């Protein structure tokens, strides 16, 4: 065996540990750490595991409600009560750095990791989503990354058997070389099935289950907490793990089966970031116990692995299970049934220490609670970025109004960020598990929870949920890096608002949220300012929409050699639809239906009239500037509440939110987003009259992104009721047109006060929108 | 009726099949573990979709050697009804219970979407509730669903009425554009010469409830039930 290197200041620095942090380690241990211990501190105190740069900020998030059964930070994922003794567990996590280095495996293992977080809680995973960012899609390298990431997500999710039911993809130069891959998973369980990641019960045996440990993914958590440079990407290729979804499927089935074995499991935790290290420290810390493991008993794939390597490996699909003494045979029976490796590697102790032995010799001895909970906390300096002054001063007046609105819409519908993502979701199995009620392509996805979605009950246990139960959960994930770059606080509020609006359009009330903060290097005060202001905005908006944050992930150091990415908080919102009849989609339904715009057509008090940071400004004028549209949370809430009330009254046939590309894109999508089958889109036309709307600019009216707007359609009988309800709620509501004839001859006609009537062929627009990504990628 | 749904390591549509057979159609349905050696009291066997054995080596190539498949073969030889869906279709081809093979989609990538199918021979246990030409809207979800067989086999299958479902457009025309994976003759599903074993790439169990955007898949499962009821009566 090779001898461990001596601890030098250089070695300490290489592990990303500062001199002050090292002093703290000396104090905790009362001595100098050895090499293995240094490695353990390095991963446990990385940003990825410790949130040392963001903890003080994250405290602002609303994290409580009557429905929250397991809150943020308590466990691997939060859990929310959805009634009838049912609960959901969900979380989002990033895998940005690995995906930059090896897109396919990086994205695949991102999916694998988040699925494990969910079944670790005792829940059966029932659907997945993702939020992706890439550079300019015209670059072959970006295409390679995009293809790889989508392929990796598809590979893992499809084989595992989870529907990838929603997501979003945006393209912007700032993500060149540093793509973002945020993966979300949701699972379902009965209240009494919640499992805990705590090493409870002194003397209880500790089991390792799942495939053997190899050298892959060594210290991935530490890797994710550094700036990404070209050199680091090359060096760190070995830090990317390799995923095996088939193995994960077996491990999940076996774990759920074991959890259903009465009284067998005392605690369970996945080995994700920082592998064996994190799972042992955290479980012991949560229970206030100690844990002792013997590394020679850990199944190993490579020969001659050192304790350092075994403790820091991030080999995938592994779990740590603390079994109640006397139930060891259950583990053996179930894991043998699934032909999975298992090994009893240790025991829960009363020492409060994590003791790691190798062939009987102690190689690490650390107080578990101290390393898990006493990680450093930094209050970083922040300074408003210099560019913000220019942003505030920018006025859209410097650009002339459009003279080619017809072409503009065609162009916008083909921009990769707005274009249909069928090239992406067609590669994901989005229907497995028989729960996909609203598939990708509408504002929010809707998934059905049914009795057999749930994890198995212990043998002989009485069913605790009503027979034939059905619940409908809506999900959406959103982010707008450009808005947040231009105004971190206001832009971040908009991220939440838009996500909540998507949910409202589907007929759902928010239950809770999970966020992923993708930002640059926190040591740079200007970048830290973005983070700080963004969290303030997110927290305020999450509170406004009653969407407490149940957990999430922070990914800092997202930069390429050219600079930092646009600050990109992504937010996933989960909501409950009360009744099946309330499930609403974005496409127009029937000829003659009345189209109503809820909210102000243009925010005339916004100096940029909703064009600041808009897709239109970037696509047409190549300008990423100007304050983004304002987000008045009160107004937004009123529009969403109105939409929901009208949906619940049975008046609304379709609802679609106005976001990127503005009203014109929203209307076009409402005309053509219902896809029946391969090459079988249902087309509707629309005759729109905006001549009554006062707007200083045509481009602002058609493509401006003024917030708090929803386009709904209703039968002629109910239009007046919707308008009356809007008046009562002080929401502007304007009849803007009618749904017209279907099929091949369908057109979108828009009359405005300033231009002659615009008319587009719906099938032609659809073809541009539907095929844009495939044309680049195939 | 008593349906047995096989469960291999990596099966992931097994629970969906049980759900539809039991909760939607009201029959008995149970899972049979791949290590089992007997089918027990079974009227029909469903080999469900998924990634049995991780699709390692070749789709379906390992599953065919499992204990339960020996029992399925005997059951089929005695005239028992066997339906393979997606990965189940691949397994039945590998096991020699159905002719031909399924290879990588022509477009390389995995495809998940609703497609149109035109029903062929109505004179089989799997199509008896669908007059010839009936259009079905059922989703696919596969990476290796391109049906392949040699010319002689295809000719025999056509002559013998073994091609049960073909990809088509919404008007029933079997065009190249409506073929999502490059299958020869737009073949989506077939049966054996004895017509008691069938396989198809589309997932009828995902299209058996209105809430999941369609119930055309029920016609297929209900055909099996009708056939079994008639057989029991006679």
What is the topology?
The complex is a heterodimer of chains A (778) and B (234).
Chain A: H1 9-14, H2 19-29, H3 35-44, H4 47-50, H5 55-58, E1 68-70, E2 78-83, E3 86-94, H6 96-101, H7 103-119, E4 124-134, H8 140-160, E5 164-171, E6 180-190, E7 205-209, H9 220-223, H10 230-235, H11 245-259, E8 265-270, H12 275-287, E9 290-294, H13 307-312, E10 319-323, H14 328-337, E11 342-349, E12 353-358, E13 361-367, H15 368-373, H16 387-393, H17 405-414, H18 422-425, E14 436-438, E15 445-450, E16 470-478, H19 481-486, H20 488-506, E17 509-518, H21 525-544, E18 549-555, E19 559-560, E20 563-564, E21 568-577, E22 594-598, H22 615-621, H23 633-648, E23 652-657, H24 662-672, E24 674-677, E25 680-682, E26 684-690, H25 698-703, E27 710-714, H26 716-728, E28 733-742, E29 747-752, E30 758-761, H27 762-777
Parallel strand pairs in A: 4-5, 9-12, 17-18, 26-29
Antiparallel strand pairs in A: 1-2, 2-3, 3-6, 4-6, 7-10, 7-11, 8-10, 9-11, 12-13, 14-15, 15-16, 16-21, 17-21, 19-20, 22-27, 22-28, 23-27, 24-25, 26-28, 29-30
Helix pairs in contact in A: 7-8, 7-11, 8-11, 11-14, 20-21, 20-23, 24-27
Chain B: E1 2-7, H1 14-24, E2 28-33, E3 44-47, H2 67-77, E4 81-85, H3 87-94, E5 101-103, E6 111-119, E7 135-142, E8 146-148, H4 151-159, E9 163-168, E10 187-191, E11 197-200, H5 217-233
Parallel strand pairs in B: 1-2, 1-3, 3-4, 4-11
Antiparallel strand pairs in B: 5-8, 6-7, 6-9, 9-10, 10-11
Short description, anyone?
The complex is a heterodimer of chains A (778) and B (234). By secondary structure, chain A is an alpha+beta fold.
């Amino acid at each position: 065996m090779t001898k461990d290197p001596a601890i030098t200041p250089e070695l300490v620095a290489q592990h990303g540990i500062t001199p002050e942090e090292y002093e703290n380690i000396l104090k905790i241990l009362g001595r100098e750490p050895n090499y293995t211990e240094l490695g353990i501190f390095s991963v446990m105190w990385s940003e990825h595991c410790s949130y040392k740069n963001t903890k003080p900020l994250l405290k602002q998030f609303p994290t409580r409600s009557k429905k929250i059964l397991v809150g943020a930070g308590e466990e691997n994922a939060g859990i929310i009560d959805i009634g009838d003794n049912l609960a959901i567990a969900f979380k989002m996590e990033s895998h940005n750095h690995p995906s930059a280095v090896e897109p396919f495996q990086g994205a695949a293992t991102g999916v694998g990791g988040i699925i494990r977080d969910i079944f670790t809680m005792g829940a059966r995973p029932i659907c997945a989503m993702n939020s992706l960012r890439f550079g300019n899609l015209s670059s072959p390298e970006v295409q390679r990354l995009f293809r790889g990431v989508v392929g990796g997500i598809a590979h893992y999710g499809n084989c595992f058997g989870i529907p990838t039911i929603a997501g979003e993809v945006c393209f912007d130069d700032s993500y060149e070389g540093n793509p973002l891959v945020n993966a979300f998973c949701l699972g379902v369980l009965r209240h009494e099935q919640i499992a805990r990641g705590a090493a409870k019960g002194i003397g209880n045996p500790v089991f390792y289950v799942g495939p053997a440990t190899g050298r892959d993914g060594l210290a991935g958590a530490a890797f994710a907490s550094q700036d990404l440079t070209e050199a680091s990407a090359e060096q760190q290729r070995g830090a990317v793990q390799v995923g095996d979804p088939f193995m994960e499927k077996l491990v999940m089935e076996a774990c759920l089966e074991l959890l259903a074995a009465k009284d067998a499991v005392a605690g369970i935790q996945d080995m994700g970031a920082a592998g064996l290290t994190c799972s042992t420290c955290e479980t012991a810390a949560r229970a206030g116990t100690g844990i002792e493991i013997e590394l020679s008993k850990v199944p190993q794939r490579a020969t001659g692995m050192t304790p350092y390597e075994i403790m820091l490996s991030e080999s995938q699909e592994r779990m740590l299970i603390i079994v109640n003494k006397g139930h060891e045979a259950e583990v053996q029976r179930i894991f043998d049934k699934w032909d999975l490796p298992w090994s009893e590697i240790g025991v829960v102790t009363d020492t409060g220490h994590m003791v790691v032995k190798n062939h009987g010799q102690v190689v690490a001895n650390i107080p578990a609670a101290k390393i898990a909970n006493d990680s450093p906390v930094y209050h970083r300096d922040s300074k408003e970025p210099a560019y913000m002054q220019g942003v505030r001063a920018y006025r859209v007046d410097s650009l002339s109004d459009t003279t080619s609105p017809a072409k503009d819409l065609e162009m916008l519908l083909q921009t990769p960020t707005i274009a249909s993502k069928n090239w992406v979701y067609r590669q994901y199995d989005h229907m497995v598990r028989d729960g996909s009620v609203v598939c990708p392509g509408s504002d929010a996805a809707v998934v059905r929870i049914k009795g057999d979605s749930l994890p198995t009950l212990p043998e002989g246990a009485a069913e605790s949920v009503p027979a034939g139960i059905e619940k409908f959960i809506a999900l959406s994930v959103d982010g707008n890096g450009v808005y947040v770059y231009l105004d971190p606080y206001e832009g971040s509020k908009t991220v939440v608002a838009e996500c909540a609006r998507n949910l409202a359009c589907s007929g759902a009330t928010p239950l809770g949220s999970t966020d992923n903060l993708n930002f640059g290097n926190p040591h740079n005060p200007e970048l830290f300012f973005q983070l700080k202001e963004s969290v303030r905005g997110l927290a305020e908006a999450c509170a406004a929409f009653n969407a407490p944050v149940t957990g999430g992930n922070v990914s800092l150091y997202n930069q390429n050699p050219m600079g930092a990415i646009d600050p990109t908080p992504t937010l996933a919102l989960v909501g409950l639809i009360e009744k099946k009849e309330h499930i609403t989609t974005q496409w127009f339904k029937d000829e003659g239906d009345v189209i109503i715009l809820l909210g102000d057509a243009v925010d005339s008090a916004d100096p940029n009239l909703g064009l600041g940071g808009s897709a239109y400004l970037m696509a047409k004028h190549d300008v990423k500037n100007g304050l983004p549209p304002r987000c008045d949370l009160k107004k937004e809430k009123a529009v969403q509440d109105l939409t929901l009330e009208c949906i619940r009254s049975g008046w609304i046939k379709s609802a679609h939110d106005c976001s990127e590309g503005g009203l014109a894109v929203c209307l076009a999508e409402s005309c053509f987003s219902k896809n029946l089958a391969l090459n079988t889109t249902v087309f509707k036309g629309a005759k729109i009259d905006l001549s009554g709307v006062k707007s200083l600019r045509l481009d602002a009216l058609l493509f401006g992104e003024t917030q708090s707007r929803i386009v709904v359609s209703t039968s002629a009988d109910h239009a007046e009721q919707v308008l009356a309800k809007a008046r009562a709620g002080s929401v502007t509501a304007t009849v803007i047109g009618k749904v017209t004839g279907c099929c091949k001859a369908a057109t979108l006609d828009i009359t405005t006060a300033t231009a002659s009537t615009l008319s587009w062929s719906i099938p032609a627009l659809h073809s541009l929108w539907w095929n844009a990504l495939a044309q680049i990628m195939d | 009726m008593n349906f047995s749904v096989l469960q291999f390591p990596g099966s992931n549509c097994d629970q969906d099949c049980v759900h539809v057979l039991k909760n939607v159609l009201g029959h008995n349905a149970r899972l049979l573990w791949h290590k089992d050696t007997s089918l027990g009291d079974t009227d029909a066997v469903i080999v469900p979709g998924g990634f049995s054995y991780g699709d390692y080596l070749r789709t379906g190539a390992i599953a065919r050697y499992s204990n339960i498949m020996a029992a399925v073969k005997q059951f089929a030889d005695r005239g028992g009804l066997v339906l393979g869906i997606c990965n189940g279709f691949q397994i039945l081809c590998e096991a020699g219970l159905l002719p031909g093979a399924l290879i990588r989609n022509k477009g390389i990538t995995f495809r998940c979407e609703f497609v149109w199918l035109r029903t062929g021979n109505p004179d089989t246990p799997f199509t008896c509730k669908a007059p010839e030409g009936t259009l079905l809207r059922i989703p696919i979800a596969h990476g290796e669903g391109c049906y392949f067989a040699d010319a002689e086999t295809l000719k025999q299958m056509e002559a013998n009425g073994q091609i049960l479902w073909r990809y088509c457009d919404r008007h029933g025309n079997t065009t190249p554009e409506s073929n999502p994976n490059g299958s020869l003759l737009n073949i989506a599903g077939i049966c054996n010469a004895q017509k008691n074993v069938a396989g198809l790439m589309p997932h009828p169990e995902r299209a058996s409830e209105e809430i999941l955007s369609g119930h055309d898949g029920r016609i297929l499962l209900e055909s099996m039930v009708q056939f079994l009821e008639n057989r029991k009566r006679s």
